[in-house]
Amino acid sequence: MPTPAAFLIEHLPRLRAAPGPVLDLACGPGRNALAAARAGCAVIGLDRNAAALAQLCAHARAAQIAVQAVRADVETAHGIPFAPQSFGAVLVFHFLFRPLAPEITRLLRPGGWLLYETFTTAQRTLPGGPRNPNFLLHPGELPHLFPTLTPIHHAEATSHSRATARLLARKPPTKPPA
Prior knowledge:
The protein is α/β, with parallel strands linked by helices. It has helices at residues 6-10, 12-16, 31-38, 50-63, 101-107, 141-144; strands at residues 22-25, 43-47, 68-71, 87-93, 108-119, 150-158, 163-170. It has six helices and seven strands; from the N terminus they run ααβαβαββαβαββ. It is globular.
């Protein structure tokens, strides 16, 4: 089974307590969706690649865990095919399409979590990984894509093979009526 992101593993307790299901956006073959499901979360993996979703489903069946796979190309005018406030958490790993940021925020229920990790412009100095500037974050950019969420943790780091930014943010809980 594919190895999940360390950033996800670190925050699985938050996902288990999230106010609703977890969406793994652009999930690919589902390494993070599978880890969240193994941890007891209700998970939907969304990707445009049918072969990747087939791998996700095969891994889920083999592990006897439930993950719902949804095929959609979120980079079209159709966007993300879910209603606002459908999810207690949204996971985004190694995917960047800036126009979706407001929609990702709308998907979160009050008190919901966003875990986001993707490449920065420093990746261009390293072997492999994306080179297209549309898929690379500028220094400090990630939290600014989600201005209505409360950042809990933001970090940028470069290793020998990856330059990434990470964001853990929360949608403010609904305030009780006065």
